[in-house]
Amino acid sequence: MTLTPRQAAVRSLAAKSSSGARLQLPEESITETYGAYVFNDAAQRKHLPRDAYKKLRRTVNLGEALDPSIADAVANAMKDWAVSHGATHYSHWFQPMTGSTAEKQDSFITPTGAGTAILEFSGNELTRGESDASSLPSGGIRATFEARGYTAWDPLSPAFLRHSPNGVTLTIPTAFCSWTGDALDTKTPLLRSNAALDVQARRVLSLLHEPTEPLVNRVFTNVGAEQEFFLMDRELFYLRPDLMATGRTLFGASPPKGQEQDDHYFATTPGRVMAFMQDLERRLWQLGIPIKTRHNEVAPAQYEMAPIFESVTVACDHNMLMMDLLHEVASVHGLKCLLHEKPYRCLNGSGKHNNYSVATDLGQNLLDPGKNPHENLRFMVFLTSLIAAVDRHQDLLRLTVASAGNDHRLGANEAPPAIISIFMGSDLQGVIDTIIAGESHHGFEGEKLHLGVNSLPNFPRDTTDRNRTSPFAFTGNKFEFRAPGSSQSLAYPNYVLNTILAESLEDLAEKIEALGEEKRSNAAIQEILRETLTEHQRILFPGDNYTDAWAEEAGRRGLLNLKDTPAALEQLNAPKNIALFSKYKVLSEREWLSRTEIVAGAYQEKLRVEARVAVDMAATLFLPAALRAQHKTADSLNAARKASQSLNLDVQVNHLTKIANLISTLQGSIDKLRERLDNPATEADAVARARKSATNLIGPMDELRAVVDELEMLVADDLWPVPKYRELLTVH
Ligand code: ADP
Ligand code: MG
Fold first, then answer.
1. What domain range includes position 79?
2. Confidence (pTM)
3. Are 529 and 380 in contact (CB under 8 A)?
4. Ligand 2 centre and the CA of 652: distance in Å?
5. 315 and 444 together in one domain
6. Who lines ligand 1 at CB under 6 A?
7. pLDDT by residue (tens digit) across 295-350?
8. Tally of structural domains, the chain
9. Considering every ligand atom, which ligand is closest to the CA of 356?
10. Are residues 512 and 444 in the same domain?
11. DSSP 3-state assignment of 603?
């Protein structure tokens, strides 16, 4: 028997599973190689002149502007270090608004005449790169005729070495902007938002400052990203045009065994997957990415890995790098990593929980309730600010997680709903309720709550109750934003969080300042908190976010329920949003508006690609398979009739009728979707186009899928032209 490609792939999958995975035995200890390929503090100290080293550290640790006179020294040291590890090239690595990373590579080589060459890398080359960026999205900011883009070194995120089979590249994290200075990436606003938060947070801290305390020099955010993903066999992946083009299955009947039995979560990781994870972890550690946790997720073939939290820009860079490496290392192990938010219809999708806290250079976590009355007061001020911020800007937070992929996940009873709300846990909710009621707090052994007078009850962090259905949950000393999608960059949610928090902190600072110095008592501050919490308490919700009752209740509270990406995009240009980002110099009006264009355009394009692939697969794979099935059934009927007149063939005739009917429905669905594709949305406004595309394409795609999935369960297995869910979900 000759195997179809699919059968051959399935067979090779079986062979791989039995031969066992490629296990790499570690040669060196982790501690020896951790961060070996990062130009980190230790490498800087070793390779830089003392003075330059000190100045660079001041920039990294305190956010001071870089002294341009040390650029040459730093560049030279970086090059020497990189070359000693085999590097031949350097690259300016950046994060354009495509959602992924981009880079431009140049070699260090400089010919010196007479057939010789030296390796050179100047301060100029380190600090600024020029790239023709006309093909990267700018949302109309930069027309192609003035397509110069600049990359600017980000000294806060350390340079690192990328190894490929035939060489090593020094990779320098950079920000990316146009020649007019407009931000064309996600990192620039993130850096700017950090600066805005720093200013307002220190302003609040200085108002709460006690003379005996050391002064805070810098406030910044920490982020820990929990990355979920699916793995599948690589050969099967290439037999699915939908996965190849869109990252998700556009068709596929539910497998006989899905996640019904809840037997996958935290289960033993299969051998090949384990080998992959261990290989990946070693590479991440070498790149100074502190990967810590790994486990099986809820769906079959779904996993999660999470690093220890880091400062937000580094955490975001590291997450981007980790997504790259997930793909790269998977291929070495004969696997394919799916980062899409919803690769399989009937199974849980993948998210990326964004754990967020606010820290100072003195090592304090401002979202930690603390142990004494002073720390408690500070905590309540920051907590109240964040609650107010999330309530004021639900639309923005919703927007930061809006994408065609994530639309399949949010609100589908497996991920938080599209309604943004906050879960505090019963202890803290009790404290907040007490403050709002203006009463003493009696919940904890009669302890009174006058912030700054008596202590908050001590919350043992481990017992903070959990609410997995909440999009924004307090988890002891940090907030966990659970709505981000698995494939997205975390820069967007975090620059929005930083900016809205900065605004709320400024609001509270102004109110506290207005009290005047004599009246600035803890009781007066608590009164300000009471007013603010009262105004914004509607955003707090302790219950099950998956229920319809919550959607109704949220409606009564006036909370937004932006069900899909176009609905979120419609809020984007609200004057309050433009004013917010301009005020804190995170994004100018022009920059902000350009983002609407980009997100709306990407959404529309994504839908169109999916629709095209769906039509293509239906017309060239599934329709022919159905015709073959019809042919075989008809042949068999004819043969049976010929063999004996007395056979009862009613059931078989029914079967044939079913197939024939499905074939005509299928043809009708293909024609309909094709017709919609031929008449694309032409509205002048990008958001209106996005909405129109959704209305035009999603319904007909669902109809088409329903027919194909029904056929899949009817057509003989050997005629089905692509691997089925049961195979895609098998990785051993
Ligand atoms: P889970 O939510 O699954 O229980 P963990 O409690 O292990 O997971 O934490 C998840 C992520 O939160 C990790 O990346 C961890 O480093 C990060 N994290 C822990 N503390 C903080 C903090 N103070 N600020 C930001 N992230 C944090
Ligand atoms: Mg978590």
1. 34-184
2. 0.94
3. yes
4. 53
5. yes
6. 222-224, 226, 293, 306-309, 355-357, 365, 477-478, 480
7. 888 888 999 999 999 999 999 999 999 999 999 999 999 999 999 999 999 899 99
8. 3
9. 1
10. yes
11. helix
